[in-house]
Amino acid sequence: MSYLNAIILGIVQGLTEFLPVSSSGHLVLAEHFLNAKMPGVDFELVLHMGTLLSVLIYFRKQIFGLIKALYSPAMIEERKMILYLILGTIPAGLAGFFLKDIFEEAFSSPVATSIFMLITGVILLSTAVVKAGERKITWGRSLLIGVGQAVAIFPGISRSGTTISTGLFLRVKPIIAAEYSFLLSIPAILGAIVLKSREIASLNTVLMGPYLIGAIVSFIFGLMAVYLLLDIIRRGKFKYFGIYCLVMGAVALIHFL
Hints:
Elements: H1 3-18, H2 23-33, H3 41-58, H4 60-69, H5 76-98, H6 100-106, H7 110-126, H8 139-151, H9 159-169, H10 174-195, H11 208-234, H12 241-256
Helix pairs in contact: 1-3, 1-11, 2-7, 3-10, 3-11, 5-8, 5-10, 7-12, 8-9, 9-10, 10-11
């Protein structure tokens, strides 16, 4: 792998991991559009490490607070959030375990990916008709948002898009829904890294340079994406990502049919 390819893929992964446009969908479509095999699981793992670090850095205060709450019974709200994150992670964990073959088959189909991206566009645009709420996360809402994350295992369905949209549909305060979505991404990304960690053991040392650059670039652009999305949420422009997903999905579907 060249350094240029590592940089390009790092940029794509960093931006699309957190912006509501589906990183997995973009990788599947890019592979079929270009008729080229994307780098293996080991490189994907390295890029995930970069994007995971970007979330950990941005939300470091909240994360330290959650860790401290494990030993501080008085930190009731933080302890509740730990429970909500666990509950929100369960649906995706169960779906990934029991429906693994179905998800893997979807990753081989650019047509299915295109359709799922169209669905993401509809979901995002539909948030425009929902009046901004002021609710907080509860155990019930965390489970429903977790179901949205589980559905997003399909390529083309945006994880951040479905989780934030579900929160908005439940009348959760937009910025709270977005922050919860980002925190919920930590166990999701970490789980993917753990499941694929064996692949890194066979990494060719010759590739260490490009891989390291890819991770750094994905971290930088992942951090930029976090700042950008939270700012867009605050300005009430979240729904406009739906237009991009509809256009991208339609163009891809026409191409692959």
